[in-house]
Design goal:
This protein has 151 residues and is mainly alpha-helical. The protein has a domain of 105 residues: Orthogonal Bundle (Regulator of G-protein Signalling 4, domain 2), CATH 1.10.167. α3 packs antiparallel against α4.
Length: 151
């Protein structure tokens, strides 16, 4: 029937989408569903501050208004850079010092080096663990099972 066909196509598309996340870290990050599932995985590892920081930096770069840049920069600093923050990200001391020096006149790219370090950390450490995680593997298995049951 048409409904079975539509369901089969949707499951197949989901399977292709979820499988594509293993092709590259950028493919995962560029996909909203992939990002959400990766975020769930990071929460389970108590390292979701890395993704939250990365996303906050991405949003900051899209900001045009100076007042909003200053406000967002301050919030990102307090949330992720300050050594007093409970969600402090792990960045080099030199990068942290540079950010501290530039906080008086913040720009939308003030966190670029820190964001690059956090991206590299997630890519090198979290991403391979995600691909082998129960969260991702069970998703793939359930999609495969759904695909098989439609045959």
């Amino acid at each position: 029937t048409n409904i079975k066909c539509i369901l089969y196509i949707n499951i197949y598309m989901w399977k292709c989408e979820a499988s594509s996340w293993a092709l590259s870290f950028n493919t995962l990050l560029d996909n909203p569903t992939g990002r959400d599932i990766f975020m769930e995985f990071l929460r389970s590892e108590h390292s979701d501050e890395n993704m939250l920081f990365w996303q906050a930096c991405k949003e900051l770069k899209a900001e045009q208004r100076k007042a909003a840049i200053a406000e967002k920069t301050k919030q990102i600093y307090l949330d992720y850079i300050s050594i007093l923050s409970p969600k402090e990200v792990s960045i080099d001391a030199t990068v942290r010092d540079t950010i501290n020096s530039n906080m008086a006149m913040p720009t939308a790219d003030i966190f670029d080096e820190a964001q690059a370090q956090i991206y590299a950390l997630m890519h090198r450490d979290s991403y391979p663990r995600f691909l082998n995680s129960a969260i991702y593997q069970s998703l793939l298995q359930s999609l495969n099972a759904g695909n098989a049951s439609q045959s």
